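Demo today. Your pick:
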Amino acid sequence: MDNAIRTALAAAAPDRDVDTVEEPGGSANPGNRTVRVRFVDGETAYLKVAVDGNRTRLARAVATVRYVGGRSGAGDRNGDGRTAVRVPRVLAADADADPPYLLTAPLSGSPVDREWAAGSVDERADLTGAVGRALAGVHAVRFDAAGRIVGGDDGTLAVETATWPDVVAGLVDEDGETDGGRFDGFPERAADAVEVHRAALALDMSGDDVPAPALLHNDPRPENSFTGPDGVGFIDWEQAVVGDPVLDIVKTEGRFLGRPDIEGRERLREGLWDGYRDRAGELPAGFDLRRRVYRVVTFLGVASGFDEWAPRVDEPTEELAGWVRSEFDDRTEQL
């Protein structure tokens, strides 16, 4: 156990005896460390530590988990119609600590990535449908304006408001780091797509022809999703944002279906959309055009994560890199 984990654990659980501390897997954000803690009394918890000291990111995660959990009445369970989605129960948190930390109870259910790995196309379609229903629940939480979540307390979220195209442009900057020059030019082309379609990406509280600003998880990957009898719940809310629900749907497509070796992609995508419609009644307003723009923006994650996912695909690296470049070209040409 290194010093950052030891310090955060002592602050988060000062009166509890620890049995084991294990790393369950790497975080998608290299600035974080997450460990599974088993206490002597048999209880298990997960400790996330911002080892790079990023307080804003941890404050966002803490505030959003508490906010969403408060809407359901008890965190890790579905409540009435106001609930957004199941989230872990917060045991202790301090975004101002050195280092910042968040200690949560395990989220009930089975990790979707585990179910996904062993599933048939039909079983995977059921999973994407369940994720779609959960996303619709998240997006039922509406706001007056788009922006970045910077904190919150007492059942409210503090949102630094901005125009939605400006928020998306900031997300492009954050997601646009690519490796070794293999995909040079991708971030600039994605930024151009946002700028060209700036007017079309506006949000409106009227909700008639334009989506209203909604809570987005913004990182709905399979390993952040847990399925159980009460539906899908999400962990890792540190990238949560207030904005266009279409972005979250398209990000989910990318996180689940972005690799070239996924079978039955159309069937799985329809499962996601059908699940969303099942809870929300319909896909968000302006879905088709917005989806085309966001398919360019969200593909940056596929490019920047190439070295992480490519070794798991049974194809030569350069062929996969060629597929990424060709796919990105196709998406930009469809705008």
